[in-house]
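Please, structure for the following, as tokens.
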Amino acid sequence: AATKLASAEKLMYFCTDQLGLEQDFEQKQMPDGKLPVDGFLLCVDVSRGMNRNFDEQLKFVSNLYNQLAKTKKPVVVVLTKCDEGVERYIRDAHAFALGKKNLQVVETSARSNVNVELAFSTLVQLVDKSRGKAKIIPYFEALKQQSQQIAAAKDKYEWLVSRIVKSHHEAWPNVSRKMQPAPEYQDYVYLEGTQKAKKLFLQHVQRLKQEHIERRRKVYLSLLPQALDALVPDLDEIDHLSRAKAEKLLEAKPDFLKWFVVLEETPWDATSHVDNVDNDRIPFDLLETPAAEQLYEAHLEKLRNERKRAEMRRAFRENLESSPFVTPGKPWEEARSFIMNEDFYLWLEESVYMDIYGKHQKQLIDKAKEDFQELLLEYSELFYELELDAKPSKEKMGVIQEVLGEEQRFKALQKLQAERDALILKHIHFVYHPTKETCPSCGACVDARVEQLLGSRFIRPAEQQRQQHRNPLLDSNIDRINLVILGKDGLARELANEIRALCTNDDKYVIEGKMYELALRPIEGNVRLPVNAFQTPTFQPHGCLLCPYNSKESLSYVVESIEKSRECTVGRRDNHLAQLPLTLILVNKRGDAGGETLQSLIQQGQQIASKLQCVFLDPASAGIGYGRNINEKQIGQVLKGLLDAKRNLNLVVGSTSGLKEAASDADLRVVMCLMCGDPVSADEVLLPILQAQPCRPAAGG
């Protein structure tokens, strides 16, 4: 209770936390000489102490207050440790203060930093009356305000930490130096202290580390199914193995280290491997985690399901093959009820069965068509009495169907009547025009196959290299001219018929006294489709696309088709097709003999011809009669121009070699090998040719 103190070389402040560490804190001493005391804070501990009686403590405080009162100095009662305060102790302390005159009470908590400044500012106001009177706030209300202030400061501080700290490798000393100038850091440290600020930083770093580990875990787990598929794709290999044996099996695989890494230290998330983002190999000890075990079990289940689905597909195919209800052309809707059972629906979608059924139907239909073609060959006498134009009447078709109707091979196509009738018509066409092009076997035609094999087999190496770069347009020995006619809406076929009318009965045409065989290929569809290609295995265009048109639409079709054809041949060996001579022909449009439309078509045709650098023919200006598109003079000019263009190209083309037939038998049963010179029977040579073997290897033939 003394009011004058001696303060020589005494520190103004220290606490128990600073004992032994005094040099780490600010060394600020009190003034020298006498130090007057202006007021007193009378502190009362209202917490529950060990072996301490509060009534006796309060009696001591009362005696102490009596001593302080004698000094006539201001006194403020400070209730400390209110964060652990006992309600009765607080009431008794307030009752004690009420018994004294003008004795103010401030409820504080140094630990929570609640009302500490208020206690001092209250005393200062009592010492200096000029200051405004401080408003004393109860502890719990002050605590609420303090909590709100701390929460706001904490949010701002955490925002600051998240903005500055992006890696879990950051250290507190470096980060704290960066944050010191920031008001968010200063406010929070003032309210909660440096240790709590560091604690929040460490929590943030730990959270970043866990997030990084979780991302890596997801990467590893996402790769695990791929690794299992690559290393153990066979169910029989792992189905009955324990987990330990399965892991040993994985380690024994040649590609194990491509997918996994065995770490010297465990667990994997505590090693440096987790920070190596360039190495996505799966830590082998990750397989011991529940998530990896679930993926392994899922892999097993997937393999079992795949096996079961394969068994269902196989059983379904067998069901199709054995079912008498599945016939060529029968729709899925009709066959489903006869071939499906409940087990099928449990394992596969109906679309899968429909796909299998569609493939099976294709096999059935192809086999039925093949058998039906054999049937037609067996009944060849039915087709001998037809007219040469090979267009049977309805009565004749009825007779053919009646004769064949009892045959099972005929009945097999009863659900495909349109295709069956088409096969009959195609067969009739073949009977009267037996060529490679009309053969029912198409690409499997023996004539075409032998021709291809001979052409590719019996060529000298030096000449073969020359032929690879040879343009068929330059072959001076050609006696056949293959022309493509490109048109739309029947124009190509109509022009082809008119040209054939100018030829002899066997499609021969005389140019400059020499007879040429003229072959025409009218095309009226999409030239990118194989059926409409300029070149086929049996048709090699020698030049001159004749392109008739009679409208804007048909002219557009011609231009687009030529551009498509040139695009398709860019970079290919047969790119000579892109340089075939072109002739653009304006044909008569019935019902429109003149006028602006005709003039417009002529102008457009001339413009296109100039663009394509081709010949433009206007039959109307040439005096051609109504209904005619081209005359003999013009076709002669076109073909002569083709031959002249060929002659102008001064290229040397070697002759071909191969097998020449020796007509020693009426049925051409003997051929001669040009390399060894020996005559060989056709049976001896054709079989090795079809097998792509030389006829006499020993002789080099």
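Residues 165 and 174 are 10 Å apart (CA to CA). Confidence is low (pLDDT under 50) at residues 472-478, 622-628, 649-670, 690-701.
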